[in-house]
Amino acid sequence: MERQKQRKSLFWRLSLQTKLLITFALTAVLMFVINILLYSEINQSMKKLDEVYATNVSLNELTECLEETHSDVLEYLNTKSSDSLEDYYRNVQEYRDMLEQVNSRIVDNKMRILEKNIRNMSETYLELADETIQAKRGRNVERYKAAFAEESQKYQYVQYAIYNLNNLRFQANSDNYSVLLTSLQYMEIISSVVVVIAAVINLVVLMLLIRTITEPLRMLAGSANEVADGNFDISLPDYSGEDEVGIVTHAFAKMIGSTPIWDYWPLWQVCSRSRV
Q1: CB 66 within 8 A of CB 159
Q2: What gap in Å lies between CA 77 and CA 144, rounded to an integer?
Q3: Is this structure's pTM higher than 0.85?
């Protein structure tokens, strides 16, 4: 209680300009903090929306790299060019890098199991593709034909598995997308309500502050009018602040209490004549 009184007395000792500046500064800081928090929440929701279909994009890239690798094998078998061989090794390395992101652990999740199968089949496919290339380079016709037949079959298996996994992920991501989109819509509504509430609170605070300034001035003006009419038996407003309003109120009270009534007679006459 004592600390609260000290804080209150400290606030009331401030000037009007300082009070207004503090009030507007606190209002601006409050609105800034609220906007930052709301922006952060909405930004997180937008990131989640972007991440929803990132898995489908990665699978599409994996499929494209697999197709390019298989095309390089076919081109080398037909042309035996160094460019196709170079492209083959580059795509194989890129495909292996992508496989590092695919699950290789034993789990119970259906999509994770399918990922593990894709990774294992892809490793077998790459071994058969390399065997086909090496047999072609060694001019072992029978061997590279047999290896290529196995490699083509494994290629179709991997493609089919990636296609199934892509469909499963798309269905799951569609459900997640709907949930996140609904949450984002609710977040927009909540943010609007919070901003309106904060604006109302700030308006109420400003009105209270303005009232603490104007109400004593209005009462002081009424007392001054009473004195001008010749009524010196008045009660001055009880204002405990030490700002400009308090200084004027205390000075007026001191002037009323320390000056004899007849000293105000010329003022009263002037006021009466001006009204006539």
Answers
A1: yes
A2: 9
A3: no
